[in-house]
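hey m, so remember when u said the tokens were messed up on ur end? i reran from scratch. heres the input so u can diff it against urs
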Amino acid sequence: MEKLGNVSIDNMALGNIGRVIAGQALESTKKGVMDALRSPEPAKPVDKSQGERPSPPPVGENIGPIILGQMQAMQRTLQEDQELLVQFHTGNEVIRVLEIILPSIHVFVLSGVDADQNVARVVIPAEAARLVFKVMKVAEGAKAIKVTVLSPRPNPAPAPAA
């Protein structure tokens, strides 16, 4: 480590610099996608009676994009021999989630398999989704499974009639 006045400079491997830059690029891309999924909030009039008190959190804030952002962040940090196990528990049934489909930002369609390897799907409001995330070691010779997130493609505007 080299000292220059009050500033210290650490030797950083080129791979670490690349990892940091790639992580920052992924974070900014994720933020852009999540911002696009969120509906814009209307401007609120200023209430002078509240003074300097902080405002309470918005009622009915959609946590779906937050859940997905956390899951994708966990998947990005995995090593090659690890995978993120995502489970949905309903009663005494456990579903291993392999795909999350977003017909809207308020609804998740969880697609996966149950304990007997039967295909299962759950349609659930995003606010009610209670998912369990576990980082697991991949079995020797097996390939890590990555949970995919599918969002709807915007429909192109129809061409005006002539």
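this time it looks ok to me. The two ends are 71 Å apart (CA to CA). if urs says something different then somethings off w ur setup not the seq
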